[in-house]
Design goal:
Strand 6 (about 170-175), helix 6 (about 180-195) and strand 7 form a beta-alpha-beta unit. The chain folds into 2 domains: about 15-125, no CATH class; about 145-370, 3-Layer(aba) Sandwich (Rossmann fold), CATH 3.40.50. Helices cover about 30% and strands about 25% of the residues. With about 375 residues, the protein is α/β, with parallel strands linked by helices. The radius of gyration is 26 Å and the shape is elongated. Helix 5 crosses helix 6. The strands form 3 sheets. It has an 8-stranded mixed beta sheet, sandwiched between helices. The structure holds S-adenosylmethionine (SAM).
């Protein structure tokens, strides 16, 4: 690769990096070449060669000065004239297992065609696990990207939503407003950790978001079915769990009929309704909604209907900061398709990002109520 930029060492620049297999069959940056012209000593290449060896553990180091090849000794203190590079001892048929060796995402957006081809080739040589790691990091970065934030939830919220599913990480799991799929990918990780089997289903009205989600889903290691569609109109599968963050504050063009017989032009009650309609008995929906869902007058009747007919297992308020690209407060709502019962009500403070991660006090307290049959906290 000419002048590659690698995720694990984005500031390192070398003229050429050649990849080869190490003794474990893993494809790694093996040789570095610095090219110089003019009246310059081969030793001038040593600082760059050294930086590569320290950061990436490269094995062979060369300077090419005015077309002549020089190979560095192991200590990188002397260079000896050679005819050309030494063939790698373990060949070059391995796969890349280290996600840090992928190009960083900023480099991938809008670079030259040659770089995009090189990058695609590099990614095609990665193990499924390494590629998954790369894609997961890319999705997390999207939530900080101005153009994409409306299609990508905050990574901590994705973790919290999955955490609130508790032991329900099994079977068919649907996100009807999946965006780039952050919630589904968090479910995939949790299923892999817990050894459960999941089939992930996603729907989004935005074709580019679906394309991103499909690309990520290809390396998820579980069954993933993501489609372009309108969650309010499409036929969706009956599932064991729903995870979702419908668009915030959207008004609908046409009234949507809710389960209580009334109609709404607000996206949020319509989205909650879609989730409930597709939940199997005892199934759970975990939704990230605008904070005002719990207090807005326009949703009052529908909230009362929910409380009378479903188990509102938890309502957790999140301060501004939890919704990328906005400054609004939000709510995590946990609904079980089960008989009504007590509700855990909590409010995350400034430290919401630690409170809501697995092991965080608020998430643990909520789970103790939701799945532990303990008395709800105030
Ligand atoms: C807040 S984003 C979801 C982000 C997602 N949780 C993630 O982390 O990637 C809401 C998504 O709903 C999609 N959307 C809007 N209206 C829709 C509809 N009627 N049906 C399906 N998706 C819709 C938007 O394109 C957007 O990607």
């Amino acid at each position: 690769m000419r002048e590659p930029v690698l995720r694990g060492a984005p500031r390192l620049k070398a003229d050429v990096v050649a990849w080869a297999s190490n003794s474990d069959g893993e494809l790694v940056p093996w040789a570095v070449v610095e090219v110089k012209r003019g009246s310059i000593a081969p030793l001038a290449a040593v600082p760059t060669l050294n930086a590569f060896r320290e950061n990436l553990g490269t094995a062979d180091h060369y300077a090419v000065v005015n077309g002549d090849w020089y190979k560095a000794d192991r200590a990188l203190q002397a260079l000896e004239r050679v005819d050309g590079p030494t063939p790698p001892p373990h060949g070059a048929d391995g796969i890349i297992r280290d996600a840090d060796l992928a190009p960083p995402v900023g480099h991938r957006l809008g670079e030259s065609a040659v770089e995009r081809i090189t990058e695609a080739y590099l990614l095609s040589l990665m193990s499924r696990e390494a590629l998954w790691d790369v894609r997961r990091r890319d999705v997390a970065a999207l939530s900080r990207h101005r153009r994409w934030s409306e299609h990508a939830s905050h990574p901590v919220i994705a973790e919290a939503v999955t955490g609130l599913l508790g032991a329900r990480i099994e079977g068919d799991i649907l996100d009807p407003f999946c965006g780039s799929g952050a919630f589904l990918w968090s479910v995939a990780d949790r299923a892999a950790q817990g050894g459960t089997s999941v089939r992930l289903h996603g729907r989004d009205i935005n074709e580019q978001a679906v394309e991103i989600a499909r690309t990520v889903g290809d390396s998820a290691g579980v069954s993933v079915d993501i489609r372009v569609g309108n969650a309010l109109m499409d036929d969706l599968l009956m599932v064991d769990a729903v995870v979702s963050a419908p668009p915030f504050g959207l008004r609908l063009y046409e009234p949507h009929q809710l389960l209580n017989g009334s109609t709404t032009v607000e996206m949020e009650p319509a989205a909650v309704d879609v989730a409930l309609r597709h939940l199997k008995p005892e199934g759970r929906a975990v939704l990230h909604l605008m904070g005002s869902f719990t207090s807005r007058k326009s949703v009052g009747q529908y909230r009362a209907f929910l409380a009378e007919n479903y188990r509102i297992a938890a309502v957790i308020g999140c301060p501004p900061g939890a919704v990328p690209g906005t400054n609004v407060a939000s709510t995590l709502l946990v609904l079980d398709n089960a008989a009504p019962g007590k509700t855990f009500a909590g409010q995350a403070g400034e430290d919401w990002a630690t409170q809501l991660l697995p092991g965080g006090a608020l998430l643990e307290a909520a789970m103790a109520h939701i799945d532990g049959d303990l008395d709800p906290r105030p």
